[in-house]
Specification:
By secondary structure, the chain is an alpha+beta fold. It is 26% helix and 46% strand. The strands form four sheets. Strands 14, 15, 16, 17, 18, 19 and 20 form a seven-stranded antiparallel β-sheet that branches. Strands 10-11-1-13-22-21 form a six-stranded antiparallel β-sheet. Strands 2, 3, 4, 5, 6 and 7 form a six-stranded antiparallel β-sheet that branches.
Length: 501
């Protein structure tokens, strides 16, 4: 015969819903861990209101799922003064669930405490018992209604990191209290029924209290820890990029929010060489929306660095890439003042009736700097200009150095981060010429013409397409704000979860 304690250990599987809820609250908040001496490329903040909202959503999901909970049968026996009673409790179904109140407390400097208060559970089922005293044999069966009320659970966890850069999680406290367990049976001998009730209500309550914390600690110290230890710290982007998003320092816990500090660096696949620069320190923020994200210009600079290292930052510009009504801009023989041959007369003289082609190559990696004014980009490169002659051959003309600075003003439109060019300047200097000396101011005028027709429109097209805010199924971002600050873009938003009916 299986003991009462062993059977209620099996029955405590119902409490796994509590462990699932806690994992939703805790694991979502976790990042990935690395060195403590690197400034992050992006920072992720969860406010206390955001954590509590997530806990409430998880409880709503739990409330729906617990109605379908399957509770295992219970078999046991016990001795009373007048004899021995063996019993079976079968066909149990959950008939009601009282959703508890929930609260997440951020323990400054250490971790999280999650509290559930006043949960309740009702169920019904069938019972059967056998009473034996000497030669006396009595048995009976019937149905029952059971009620667990005033159940409360408090669990605290600490978050950290191991030597390999993965996150760690440990339970530091667990307390479960159940105010009462009541069982009301229908059928059977009333005198034996009352004895049975008094015997099982208190043991059931104590075993449930113990097993709920046992399951909660296992969910944290075994299941969650194992999952986190194997989580990746980088993700492949397309076929030849890797984005490293591990944490660069442990999470920081304040009374009203917690922060996660992520690496935020792009690499070429197969080459994890660190960029020769570091992210700037993020400025503070006072927003207490559910989620706040800082995105550093460091991330953009790592993209530019990889593109430069891989020799991708080069482009050959021909008249075929210009708008139909602007193809004449690169002609050497001109019919208007907006024409290369008009701005640089030597081109028209040496190579009439030809078309200019520009081979543009970056001479260093481009840089980006974000401020309250917007996004400022800097590019330095070399331009080799040649003339495409009527016979199809290419005649070298001259080479220049060029440096470009442009300013993009960013804004949020329908959850898409968009931008437009609000300033553009360049400096051009002749380095070699096959057609004679060309003054720098003439070169600047020619380059600005190309910029106004080709470079700036393309930048505006990229800015108009923008970067969509990440979408999550059944989740809507509300009251979203975008702010440009020192070396970062900061996005603060509330979250609304709307599951399908």
């Amino acid at each position: 015969m299986v003991s009462t304690r062993e059977n209620f250990t099996n029955g405590a599987k119902a409490c796994r819903y509590f462990q699932q809820l806690m994992l939703v609250v805790v694991v979502v908040c976790l990042g990935f861990v690395s060195s403590t001496q690197i400034n992050p490329g992006f920072q992720f903040r969860l406010s206390r209101s955001g954590l509590n909202y997530g806990s409430t959503v998880a409880l709503d999901i739990l409330s729906k799922g617990v109605q379908q909970l399957k509770v295992p049968d219970i078999h046991g026996s016990t001795h009373i003064r007048v004899g021995k009673v063996s019993y079976d409790v079968t066909s149990m179904h959950v008939t009601g669930f009282t959703k508890p109140s929930t609260n997440v407390v951020i323990n400054a400097g250490s971790g999280l405490t999650w509290q559930l208060n006043n949960a309740g559970l009702s169920m019904d089922g069938r019972w059967h018992y056998k009473f034996r005293k000497g030669f006396i044999r009595i048995q009976d069966s019937g149905s029952f209604d059971g009620h667990v009320s005033g159940a409360s659970l408090t669990v605290s966890v600490s978050l950290g990191q191991d030597a390999s850069g993965h996150p760690t999680i440990s339970s530091t406290h667990c307390q479960c209290r159940i105010d009462s367990v009541k069982i009301r049976m229908q059928g059977g001998a009333s005198w034996l029924y009352n004895i049975f009730i008094r015997l099982v209500e208190v043991p059931i309550r104590k075993i449930l209290e113990e097993q709920i914390c046992t399951l909660a600690r296992k969910a944290i110290d075994v299941d969650a820890r194992a999952q986190l230890a194997t989580m990746p710290t980088a993700i492949d982007v397309r076929e030849d990029w890797v984005f490293d998003y591990r944490l660069v320092s442990p999470p920081a816990f304040q009374s009203e929010f917690l922060d996660y500090f992520h690496k935020g660096e792009f690499f070429a696949k197969g080459d994890r060489t660190e960029a020769p620069f570091r992210a700037a320190v993020f400025p503070p923020a006072t927003s207490m929306k559910m989620v706040t994200i800082w995105v550093s210009d460091y991330i953009l600079n790592t993209v530019g660095y990889v593109l430069y290292k891989r020799g991708i930052l080069k482009h050959n510009l021909t008249k075929n890439e210009l708008p139909v009504d602007e193809k004449g801009v690169l002609n050497t023989t001109c019919t208007s003042s907006t024409c290369f041959g008009f701005l640089v007369p030597q081109v028209a003289t040496v190579h009439p009736n030809a078309s200019v082609e520009l081979e543009m190559i970056a001479s260093s990696y481009p840089t980006a700097s974000i401020s309250a004014a917007g996004f400022r980009g800097n590019f330095a490169g070399l331009i080799n200009l040649s003339a495409r002659l009527a016979n199809g051959s290419l005649a070298p003309m001259f080479k220049t150095k060029v440096s470009v600075t442009f300013l993009l003003t960013a804004y949020l439109d329908n959850m898409v981060i968009q931008a437009t060019v609000t300033d553009f300047s360049s400096k051009t200097k002749l380095t070699q010429s096959e057609i004679g000396h060309i003054p720098d101011d003439v070169l600047n005028a020619a380059f600005n013409l190309i910029a106004n027709i080709f470079i700036i429109p393309n930048l505006n097209t990229v800015g108009e397409n923008g970067i969509p805010f990440p979408s999550i199924e059944d989740v809507r971002f509300t009251n979203t704000e975008l702010e440009m600050d020192d070396h970062c873009v900061r996005i603060a938003t509330d979250v609304q979860y709307s599951p399908p009916d």
